[in-house]
Design a protein that fits this description.
There is one protein chain. By secondary structure, this protein is of the alpha+beta class. It has a domain at 31-152: 3-Layer(aba) Sandwich (Glutaredoxin), CATH 3.40.30. Helix content is 45%, strand content 15%. Strands 2-1-5-6 form a four-stranded mixed β-sheet, with helices on both faces. It has a two-stranded antiparallel ribbon with strand order 3-4. Helix 4 runs parallel beside helix 7 (154-165) and helix 7 packs across helix 8 (175-188).
Length: 192
């Protein structure tokens, strides 16, 4: 009888434990190291540069199974999280959100309008910006240096953040070559 009560108590706590990992209804999955800002992209870019970091904008939506995968399987990995936190300021936007953001050109709009303006059609999507933007009349979409649409595994995601940090987009080695070379190095080191 005591065993049955203990088993029943355990079963009752399992849904609570699982629910604790879910965001509130209508909310996005979120990491505590994501930046909390006024979502003024020029200010966010300047803040990131002032910290010696790059700005990454992650667009997600409530109920997105791929966003969940990214958060639970990739961004929760200490190696990935530590690298991103050390090198990037991450601003999260809701694909269908109504919060006001200000694009680099100073135009204010809702998150959903910005996402349309930047031609984001899939979640999650990570948009990487350059270190600085000299022009005042450009949009995020006009100056982004790279875009990662979708939830990829640990090594692809981490390599994309590394490649952007190293300004691989300015060189001759395409991301796919950079990533393939790194995977071979991981295999040779016995990490894969």
């Amino acid at each position: 009888m005591l065993r049955r009560l203990a088993a029943a108590a355990l079963l009752l706590t399992l849904p609570l434990a699982a629910a604790a990992e879910e965001p509130a209804p209508g909310a996005l999955h979120h990491k505590d190291w994501f930046a909390v800002t006024f979502k003024d992209m020029r200010e966010d870019l300047e803040t990131a540069a002032g910290e010696g970091k790059r700005l990454a904008i992650i667009v997600e939506q409530h109920g997105c199974i791929y966003c969940r995968k990214l958060h639970e399987e990739v961004l929760s990995d200490p190696e990935v999280a530590d690298y991103i936190k050390a090198n990037f300021v991450v601003v999260q936007l809701n694909m269908f959100g109504d919060e006001e953001i200000t694009d680099l050109d100073g135009e204010a709009m809702t998150e959903r309008e910005a996402v349309r303006r930047w031609a984001v059609s899939f979640t999650p999507t990570v948009i990487f910006l350059p270190e600085t933007v000299a022009e005042d009349d450009v949009t995020v979409a006009e100056v982004e240096v790279e875009r990662m649409p979708g939830a990829f595994g640990k090594w692809t995601t981490l390599d994309m953040f590394r490649w952007v940090r190293l300004k691989g987009y300015e060189g001759d080695e395409h991301f796919q070559k950079f990533h393939a070379r790194h995977i071979e190095e991981l295999r040779a080191a016995g990490r894969l």
